[in-house]
Amino acid sequence: MTVVLLRHGRSTSNTAHTLAGRSPGVELDDRGREQAQAIVARLADVVIEEIVHSPLLRCEQTVAPLARARGLTPVVEHRLVEVDYGEWTGRELKVLLEEPLWKIVQQHASAAVFPGGEGLAQVQARAVAAVREHDARLAELHGRDVVWVACSHGDVIKSVLADALGAHLDGFQRIVAEPASISVVRYTSTRPYVLKMNDTGADLSGVNVPPASGDGARAEVSGSVPGGEVRL
């Protein structure tokens, strides 16, 4: 099973350099709407069975063009919602840089709890659980490996990728997830494989599920090959 982790397009909060969090009314700006429309072409060669997204407006707007193009009704997943930044919500990033907690967020994320909000460890737990549960549900529903889209937010996506990489949450700030970027994780019966991270390009045809083996078993990527990976 393969999930396309899509970050929402550029928002009005991104350009204002504020921490949007769950503030109401934060929507895509002009560039973000262009990015949302471009996703249709970027994923044109990918067979997508379902679209799941955070309940926030900017994610709803990001997947809308793709959903219309594919004739799919998006599924709202509240566990993919943005981090509850509590008292930090809506504040300017340059001001937050001076907060003592900022260094903890950057260097010891597993211990970071936002005042009046949630901890990043909680974010990772809920987001990973949501992704894996939808993955299992779609596997049972379709009886085969499929590709599906999960549209969420930067820190949420980075926490899911850290889990897929087998990396400690304290290192998740080393991962980048830009607006409208696509990261791809293929979950197998033994472990996840990260196929793409922070991809903002156009050719995503490689995201498609490879053919199943002759015995009908679920397709699984082989182990790493010294010198590089070659799809057989």
Automatic annotation (TrEMBL):
Recorded superkingdom: Bacteria
Organism, scientific name: Rhodococcus koreensis
InterPro entries (UniProt xref): His_Pase_superF_clade-1 (IPR013078), His_PPase_superfam (IPR029033), PGM_Phosphatase (IPR050275), Phosphomutase_MSMEG4193_put (IPR022492)
NCBIfam families: MSMEG_4193
One cellular component term from this protein's GO annotations in UniProt: cytoplasm
GO MF assignments: phosphatase activity
Gene3D superfamilies to which the protein is assigned, alphabetical: Phosphoglycerate mutase-like
Protein name: Probable phosphomutase, MSMEG_4193 family
Pfam families the UniProt entry points to: His_Phos_1
